[in-house]
Structure of DNA-binding CsgD family transcriptional regulator:
Amino acid sequence: MRGRAPEWATVLRLLETAGAPGHVILVEGEPGAGKSLLLAEARTAASRAGTAVAAGRADVLGRLTPLGPLLSALDESPSAAAVTRNAMPDGPSLLMWLAGQVRAALERRAERGPLLVTLDDLQWADPATLMALRALPAQLTGLPLTWLLARRPTEGTDDARLFDLLRHEGATTVTLRPLCGRAVAQVAADTLGAPPDEELTALAAQAGGNPFLLVELLTGLCEEDAVKVEGGLARLTGTTPPILPRRVHTAVRRRLDEVSTRTRHLLEAAAVLGRSFSPAYAAEMLGETPAALLPALEEALAAGVLVATPDELAFRHELLWRSVVETVPAPVRRALHGQIERSLPSTATNGHRTDRVNGGTTAETLMLPALLAWDEGRLTHGLDLAREAVERPGTGHHPGPRAVLATMLIDLWLLDEAEAVTADAEAQAARHPEWAVEIPLLRARLDLAAGRSGSAIARAETGLTAAEALRVPALTSSALSVLGTASLRAGDLPRAIRCLESELARGTRDAPPYTRLRSELAAGRISEALDGAVSGMSSLGRVYDALPRHTGALTSEPAAAAWLVRVAMAVDDTRRADAVVGAADDIASRNPGLPNPAVSAVHARGLRERDRHALSRAADEHTDPWAGASAAEDLGVLLGADHGCRELAVRAFDDALSRYDEVGALRDAARVRGRLRALGERRRHWVTTDHPVSGWDSLTGTELAVCGLVAEGLTNRQAAEQMFISEHTVAFHLRQIFRKLDIHSRVELTRLAIGRDGL
């Protein structure tokens, strides 16, 4: 009864007045919380005080016997005389007759003196018993009769409705919650003969304050000589982390025996995902739909094996989860790991296999649920898990936890913390050269987010070369995404096109969603830039259709949702535009503590609903300057369509242009200058540079851009569209290029460009 003093005091107070009529005490607690022990202690205390006791309990098979718990508690059964005289009714009348027998027995017993009736495990009670308990306390309220009723708390069941009604009529509720840390330490000291040390205390905490699991764990450790008392403290003597004793596995197996075989198999498979998991991913791993798994999940919840959190399901206790994982045969566990790696998000950093479940909560154990949460848009939860993983010991296979955490922080534009985590990962990689391939890509992401496109391109090129040399597909895909996006912003469309072609040649169909959707978003941006919205949509089908189950594309950059809405609206696909807005709103509502998701959702909705106030807010509140520029440009487009708002439109475009220039987004800045020209405003971009009179070094930046586009096979018109200038201006620059390079045809230009470094 350690840690149960307040609950026990409530029961004792009511037992001391057992001679008074009409006491009903309702006891609720999870499996193993100590309900049966409390009822047993109550019966002992009542007997000592001279109160008669009647004890019964329900069980699964007993549901076939109407009023079985009450009949057994009162030791009542149809009399032999009644059977002989064939006095027992049949059909519906039998229940009424049995109920009368129970009531008469209770009246006889209570008339002789105070009576305590305890009924345990009423979650398994038959309907007739529950109906009787609904009526009898009120019918017998004048008798010295106390009821002590216990059940597991489950919602929406008949026993839950019974307890609610009895509470409404004045019953006292005693809830057995998990033991506090102090009580757990006391139980450990009682069982082990000495207070536990820090490591043993941490292990005991995995029981989650559940008395039964705690005692089974401690008793099992003693039975297997895994604990010794030294220096006045109980210490573990085995492996670290310790293998759970057989006694725990037996207890957990009994719990799982309460559910169907299908549910047990689901729990064993889901356990490999981690202590908490998404029903959607469990369904994906098992090749089922979430709806098909619903009956099994509901059964596991009712049995108390799983609990529901706002965003996912979780094994109720870490000890329970560990036991399920450890009892899955190793070959099966390995096969499930392989299936997860093929169908669910990987670490998105290096593609190396990790030991996600090894009997303890290591860094790698936490990374899979962190990435699952992130991919589903539960950013706060994923970020918390990733931060915790960085603080945990790992297997030492790679610096993945820091790399993943840094990527998440960059996505949210928490650049100071991202820089610190990246520096830490870089320090680790210095001691392990095989890890060094991670670092250039993290640095490239940081540079891209901070508006350093040139540096991002250089570092992404370095990372791409290393990833291809090591044949790490996840890193290669990530490098191409960063390189393509940075090249597009810098106005280097030829390089962006080469990234697109490389990614298409590699294919991303077998990549996990977290990596694949980011790659497809980057590919869609490049395709849209090259050939318009229709072409972009051809690369983005899976990005849209994955919503809302996989939202990684929306969180990969602050303006991604708005861009996807813009492309969908450009091809009149309002259904997909609305899907993006809905998913962005959902991400924002699930992550109220993070500012960027809310601003991203406002930007996307403002674009979809043509809401100038929302777009203005997005332009002001985006922390990412490129995303803020994008919102300002969207506002300018909306205002520019209203002839009465020309000045406001010019002001919005000037704001966007300033921000694009600030982060080196040359292509975007050129597009905005084109929009301003359409409004009769010219904003020239002057760069004073000394050039030779001939040769490659004599070409200006604009001429080099024209050269690159023509060398890629674009016509003058296509090049003009990419550079947001007129076709005549492209022709003028092309003549200047021919003169400076002393050539006379596009074929010669292409040949020279292919042979020149950097093109």
Remarks:
- The beta strands are 23-29, 52-57, 115-120, 145-151, 172-176, 227-230, 233-236, 276-277, 306-308, 313-315.
- The radius of gyration is 35 Å.
- The longest strand covers residues 23-29.
- The first helix runs from residue 5 to 15.
